[in-house]
Every structure is written in C-alpha cells, then in structure tokens.
Amino acid sequence: MSVSIKDVARKAGVSPGTVSNVFSGNRAVRPDLASRVRSAATMLGYEPDRAASYLRGRKARVIAALVPDLNNPFFTGLLAAVESQARSEGLNIIVASSNGDQAEEKANLAALLAWRPAGLVVIPSHDEFAARTLISRAGVPFVVADRVPAHFAGDAVTVDNVDAGRQAAEHLVNLGHTKVVVAASTLRLQNIRERCEGIESVFVSRGLTAPTLIEAGLDFDTATERLAEFMQGAGRPTAFLALTNFGTLGILATLQKWGLRVPQDISVLGFDDYSWMKAVVPPLTAIRQPVADMGAEIWRRLRARIGHGDELGARVKLRCELVVRASTSPPPTVKPEKGEVGRKRMGSKKAA
C-alpha cells in the first residue's frame, strides 16, 4: 500500500498541509518541523508526487497536442483519449494541426509552446521532425505518439505496426489470396513502412510474390484518384489491403464505381476499426488500433516525464487486433485454411 501525505503528517505530528509545504516549497516551514517531516517520510518510505506538484504549480493548466490532420478520425480519437486522462487531473488540452506541412508544424508548435503548457503530445508530420528543437529549447516535457522520428530516444507510444501488417497479410493469405494490392498513404512515414514490412514478410515466408503497392496519398480524393488509375490497368487483384482510413474509403468508392462486389469479386481489409466499418454492407474486416490504451499510455508517459525529467526515454509498443467480418472471403474456387473464416484474433495489449 502506498504511503500518503496523511500518513507522514500523522507520524511527524503535523498537519497534511505542512507536509505538502515541505515538499512543494509553496510556503516556508520552520526548520524543526521540516526536519521532522523529512525524517517521517524517510522512515515510512514516502515519495512525493512530483508530477502532481509540477502540474499544480504551472501558470497554464493545459496540455498541448500537435497532430498532422484534424480531419483524420484516428488522430481525433487519440486526442479524445488523452483529454480524458488529462481532465481527470484537472487539466485542459489545446490542439493544433500541422496539416502535414513541416513549416506549419513549426509555426503551430511555437504557438502552442507560448501557452507554457505543462506537457506536450506530438504526432510528427514527417519522419525528420525538425521542429523538435523548439521543444528542447522550451524545456517542456513531451511524448511522441504513433510516428517515431528517426534517431529519437525520448518517450514514444506506438503500435506494433510490423505485427499489424503481418496479421492482415496472414488472414488474406490463409483465405487463399495471392494477388493482393496494398493501398498505403505514403512510404515517407515510418509506421506505414513498418506495416508494409510485416505484410511482405508473410508473402516471402510463404514463397509468394510480394503484393502490389500503391501510394494512395493522405486524403480521400487523392486515394480515389490513384486507385481509379490502377484499376484502369491490367491485372485485377483478388483482395485490397488498406493501411489507412482514407485508403479504405478510396477502395470502397472505386469498387462501387466499377460495379465490383465485396467480397464476392474482391475482398477488402481496412486499417483502423471505425464505427462506420461495422455499419456498411458488408461489414469490414479491419485491423483495430488500441486507441484508448494508447491515450492512457501517452498520459502515463507524459506524467512520468513531468515528474522525472531526467529519466531515460521509454518506448511503449501496443499490439493491434484483427477483427474479421464479412468483407473478406476466399477468392473464387479457393478454399480457406481451416478456422480462418469467421475468426477474430484478439491481441494482448502489450506487444511481445
């Protein structure tokens, strides 16, 4: 059982407020009382909550967050999860978007830092994340989420993207699909490259030709345009695997335009299991990212960084979950491997 301020106060024969003042420094305490408090704390093994003291002492009781795109439901869902954690400790959250532009990222980051936030959550727009120097100069505790910049040694919370890609590919291959098209957003992003790595590893291990890769862009219009261009060429696939929400939407719009049925003509597997994926006909098979767990881990790491700024950075990697629905089935005349149809793979929260 953890030792509280009240326990220390009782042991030292002082009020809880006196104990708080000794460790926070908010008010002067007589040397003899301070000595009694510290001795009692040592005897009981009491550790002051430095993060809570820091948060109470900030002029701006806010957490700042910078994301690449506020139109992306994954980012807004993640922000909502972080906000829930921050509000539980009486902090608000202020948000800005980089719109995928490094210059805008730097400008908006400077605007957020002007608020003197207690901490910062950043989803970088690019692997380089050149704007991180602004954070270092400001001395604000921060955590990177979703996309980890190259050579970054600080706190980061991500999912196991390689494993997520592997789960998706194994599902399609086990159903009998060998002609698969992967709709990525852009290979400039590390998390997308890692998903592709996981997918390719499955095909290589099975002695199959690697899937065709399309860089479908970062928005719906670009995705539909590039997928339409692909469909005009030769060699229709038996399955599409989307690595982003907009990629999934672009695939569905393109197949509808071409009059192709899901999954009778082409199977579709999406990424990020949004509510709409359960509402469409047929409901979509998808890789589900643990958004709520990510938000909780981001807050946990940020709070730890606030309380102990000199600690080494920690990287938390969570496992995704494959949710099988009706949008994937064997290609014509191919029987799936035993147990694949209708299966739902549950992943543990922490990746191995």
Characterise this structure.
The chain is elongated. Helices cover 43% and strands 15% of the residues. The strands form two sheets. The chain has a six-stranded parallel sheet with strand order 2-1-3-4-5-11, with helices on both faces. It has a six-stranded mixed sheet with strand order 7-6-8-9-10-12, with helices on both faces. Strand 6, helix 9 and strand 7 form a beta-alpha-beta unit. About 3% of the residues have low confidence. It has 13 helices and twelve strands.
What CATH calls the topology of the largest domain is: Rossmann fold
Proportion of β residues? 15-25%
Our measurement of the CA-to-CA distance between the termini, rounded to an integer number of angstroms, reads 29 Å
Give the overall shape, derived from the CA principal axes. elongated
Q: Can you tell me the number of structural domains?
A: 3
- CATH top level of the largest domain is Alpha Beta
Strand order within the widest sheet? 2-1-3-4-5-11
Radius of gyration: 25 Å
Unreliable residue runs: 341-349
What would CATH call the homologous superfamily of the largest domain? Response regulator
Total strands: 12
Give the overall pLDDT as a whole number: 88
Question: What is the strand and helix layout of this fold?
Answer:
Blueprint: H1 5-12, H2 16-24, H3 31-44, H4 50-57, E1 62-67, H5 73-87, E2 92-97, H6 102-113, E3 119-122, H7 132-138, E4 142-145, E5 156-159, H8 161-175, E6 180-184, H9 190-205, E7 212-215, H10 220-231, E8 239-242, H11 245-257, E9 267-271, H12 275-279, E10 285-288, H13 291-307, E11 315-318, E12 321-323
